[in-house]
Amino acid sequence: MTKKEKVKKIIPIMEKKFGNPKCELNYTTAFELLIAVILSAQCTDARVNIVTEKMFEIMNTPLEFSEASLSQIEKMIYSTGFYKNKSKNIQLTSKILVSEYNSEVPQDMEKLTNLAGVGRKTANVVRGEIFGLADGVTVDTHVKRITNLMGLVKSENPIKIEKELMKIIPKKYWIVFSHYMVLHGRSTCVARRPQCSECEVLEWCNFGINKLK
């Protein structure tokens, strides 16, 4: 079975199981989502939501973050980890948005990835969730791990993984496929204890088939 054929089998099952899922980060504006995704690096969505709920009550616009001190931002996001680097990126990105984009988050992939702390993963999330645009497949730790286990890709490099997935996943599923992998990774294909015997897509997963032989 080819990888494309595998994907055609897997997607309908994931669709039936999870429906049409959306990003689990809480936000009300494109900017809030951008900040939340920056904070989500090496941090759980649940923790980010706890932090942003309080933080966005204090400040939630590019201008406010651009004028805030690094120490103020650091205190608010401390529990998300890597807070010093994230604070610098948030402040610099906010300043760029104010000075170059009239405080609006751009849709363009290149403009987004030129912002501080914004790579293809973050840009893909923002473009997909806010603008309904798909330039590629968002590759986070769940997507990287599960697609390797399934045998859809064979790489630890997110950029290479994204390129491979774009070849085998129909474009209309580029956005939602990542959500499927995240939810599947939390419910069944758990990193430390994959529940292979309970997995709905076991027969199309290289790891699961070999594990249960």
Describe this structure in words.
The protein has 213 residues and is mainly alpha-helical. The protein has helices spanning 3-18, 30-39, 45-58, 62-67, 70-77, 83-100, 109-113, 120-131, 141-150, 158-168, 174-187, 206-211. It has two domains: 3-21 and 137-211, Endonuclease Iii, domain 2; 30-131, Endonuclease III, domain 1, CATH 1.10.340.30. It is 61% helix and 0% strand. The radius of gyration is 18 Å and the shape is elongated. It starts with a helix and ends with a helix. The mean pLDDT is 96.
Whole-number mean pLDDT: 96
Largest sheet: none
Q: Identify the CATH architecture of the largest domain.
A: Orthogonal Bundle
The level of helicity is 55-70%
Strand content: under 5%
At the first level of CATH, what is the class of the largest domain?
Mainly Alpha
Computed over alpha carbons, the radius of gyration is 18 Å
* Uncertain runs: none
CATH superfamily of the largest domain: Hypothetical protein, domain 2
Query: SSE string, helix = H, strand = E?
Result: HHHHHHHHHHHH
How does the helix and strand content classify structurally?
mainly alpha
State the CATH topology of the largest domain.
Answer: Endonuclease III, domain 1
**What count of structural domains?**
2
Distance between the termini: 19 Å
Shape, principal axes of CA atoms: elongated
**Count of helix runs:** 12
